[in-house]
Design brief:
Blueprint: E1 8-12, H1 17-28, E2 32-37, E3 51-54, H2 60-70, E4 74-77, H3 84-93
Parallel strand pairs: 1-2, 1-4, 2-3
Amino acid sequence: MDVVSKQKVCIVGIYGQDGSILGNLFQKKNWNVFGLYKNQSTIHNVNSLITKIKCDTTNFRELQNTFSKIKPDLIIKDRKSTRLNSSHEWISRMPSSA
């Protein structure tokens, strides 16, 4: 039997409102979810199964090293201007990971 690994998504800004919602949605779709954060000033409900990694995203070398270790299939940068309804719609049509 071939073992197919789960797809990996890295969400930059996992403790933000949209980042936490997207992380939980990807986790429910059976993805390996990695969430980057700079600080935990605002903590939303982030699933305990999400791997949280402290990373200064303004430091290119640190970000590059983090991505090299994770090797994500998809990277999402959470921004305050995210259109969350569009994200929910896109994820709901997305197939589950293996």
